[in-house]
Design goal:
The protein has helices at residues 2-10, 34-50, 79-95, and strands spanning 16-19, 25-28, 53-55, 58-60, 66-68, 101-103. It is an alpha+beta fold and 108 residues long. The protein has a single domain, classed as Alpha-Beta Plaits (2-Layer Sandwich), CATH 3.30.70. 21% of the residues are buried.
Length: 108
């Protein structure tokens, strides 16, 4: 719940966030250029890294890996294709050492 709250606090009112699988979240940033989406993802990654989570009496620090995909007005991919691209970028972020952002290149 703390991660979801941090995500919501980091986003604009027009953005949406929801759980997508066990440990994954899906964030939609409408009308956001790819570079800005990547900056937003990096800001979220940093905020989570800096946050001290409380579990009982213990303090826990976590990191996140983020996959970014962009969908332009002329883009012919389906929403499923966009999610697949974000998932592939997430996999790259994990392969490159975790606690990082991957993807976010401009689409068609």
């Amino acid at each position: 719940r703390d991660v979801a709250r941090l995500l919501k606090d980091a986003l604009r009112t027009v953005d949406s966030v929801g759980r997508y699988g066990g440990e994954e979240f899906l964030v939609l940033l409408p009308h956001t250029p790819p570079e800005e989406a990547r900056r937003t993802a990096e800001r979220i990654r940093h905020q989570i890294e800096q946050h001290a989570f409380r579990v009982g009496t213990k303090e826990l620090r976590i990191t996140v890996s983020v996959g970014v995909a962009s969908w332009g007005a002329a883009d012919l991919r389906s929403p499923e294709g966009l999610i697949r691209e974000a998932d592939q970028a997430l996999y790259r972020a994990k392969e490159e050492g975790r606690n990082r952002v991957a993807g976010g290149e401009a689409g068609p």
